[in-house]
Design a protein that fits this description.
364 residues; alpha/beta; Udp-n-acetylmuramoylalanyl-d-glutamate--2,6- Diaminopimelate Ligase, Chain: A, domain 1; UDP N-Acetylglucosamine Acyltransferase, domain 1; 10-stranded parallel sheet; 5 helices; 39 strands
């Protein structure tokens, strides 16, 4: 992709300063831009690293003339502008048009004429793939799965049978959709069931053998969802596991069977959501957050990294810690923990003072 900086400014709906005829072929960090690259310098600290004569993306309020630049694009919200800029220069994966000769396509599958299917892809019976979809090498797609328009499925993705994927979905390498849920039962009440009722007390410890509960439900992925590398979404037991429109899921996230995730959520790396949990809309779960099974996390909840949510979380709550509490309560608790050594020393000093007073009183 080659643009003039004036064309790039118009595409970003931003203000241009300087020579608009300069050609932009890519982007670089501040201080590292070579010929044709626009430097990203959206904070004063980064702006200090710019070289005279650079082209730069700057936050409104910066002075490109004082920085010695040839041209600059000034934006009100730099990270949003970076989204547009990186999109303009991202070539995406090289997936050739048409169907690669090594792909195995069931004759009952229905592929849009302009779908691109890479090497060693396997498409099972009655699969439907929408217009503009791009499927990279070594992807497997199970029977009766539906993939929407303009989907991008990277190498090594595994999609099981009966999965429904919306339009413009992106699945990163190694993602797995539609594996069986982790559902097992014992003929008699298991130790886990017992301690859930008794909160830790066990009448007796006995042998137990696990019997599989099969997964008859599917997986439903809404439009504009992105799922990270090696993330997993298990199929439901009877009803489908669902991921709502616009939700973004990071690498190595586990979404259990029967889970419902709302719209425009952000699930960061190593999040784990146990079976039958319900996640509202616009929920943000930081890295390593855990959500217990069969609970509800309300709309607009934000949980900081490593938070463990064991009970229902009301809408709009900001959570931190294990177990999860309001962020302000967690911060105060941590402050109190740091004060404990000083408090211990003060108590020890008081005890010694009291002991001396008692000993003195006893000798009078």
């Amino acid at each position: 992709m080659t643009l003039t900086i004036a064309e790039l400014a118009r595409a970003l709906d931003a203000r241009l300063w300087g020579d608009g005829s300069l050609t932009v072929t890519g982007a670089a960090e501040a201080g590292r831009a070579s010929a044709g690259q626009i430097a990203l310098a959206t904070t004063p600290a980064y702006a200090e690293k710019l070289n005279p004569g650079d082209m730069a993306l700057l936050a409104e309020g910066a002075d490109p003339e004082a920085l010695g630049l040839r041209a600059a694009i000034l934006v009100g919200r730099p990270r949003l502008a970076m989204a547009g800029l990186t999109r303009a220069f991202d070539p995406g994966p090289a997936i050739a048009a048409g169907i690669h000769p090594s792909a195995v396509i069931d004759p009952t599958a229905d592929l849009a004429p302009d779908a691109a299917i890479g090497p060693f892809v396997v498409v099972a019976a009655r699969v439907r793939i929408g217009a503009g979809a791009r499927i990279a090498s070594h992807v497997s797609i199970g029977a009766d799965t539906v993939i929407g328009r303009d989907a991008l499925i990277h190498a090594g993705v595994r999609i099981a049978h009966g999965v429904t994927i919306g339009d413009r979905v992106i699945l990163n390498p190694g993602a797995s959709l539609g594996a069986d849920g982790f559902s097992f039962v014992t003929p008699e009440k298991s130790g886990v069931e017992e301690i859930r009722q008794s909160l830790g007390e066990r009448a007796e410890i006995r042998q137990q053998h696990w019997t599989r509960i099969h997964s008859l439900g599917g997986v439903e992925i809404g439009d504009d969802v992105e799922i990270g590398a090696n993330a997993t979404v298990d199929r439901g037991t009877i009803r489908a596991t669902r991921i709502g429109r616009g939700t973004k899921i990071d690498n190595l996230v586990q979404v259990g069977h029967n889970v419902v995730v709302g719209e425009d959520c952000l699930l960061c790396g190593l999040v784990g959501i146990a079976g039958s949990a319900r996640i509202g809309n616009r929920v943000v779960l930081g890295g390593q957050v855990g959500v217990s099974d069969n609970i509800f996390v309300g709309d607009d909840v934000i949980a900081g990294g490593a938070t463990k949510i064991f009970t229902n979380a009301p809408a709009g709550r900001v959570l931190l810690g294990s177990p999860a509490v309001r962020m302000e309560a967690h911060v105060e608790a941590q402050k109190n923990i740091r004060r404990l050594p000083r408090l211990y020393a003060q108590v020890a000093e008081l005890r010694e003072t009291v002991k001396k007073l008692l000993d003195k009183g006893g000798t009078q």
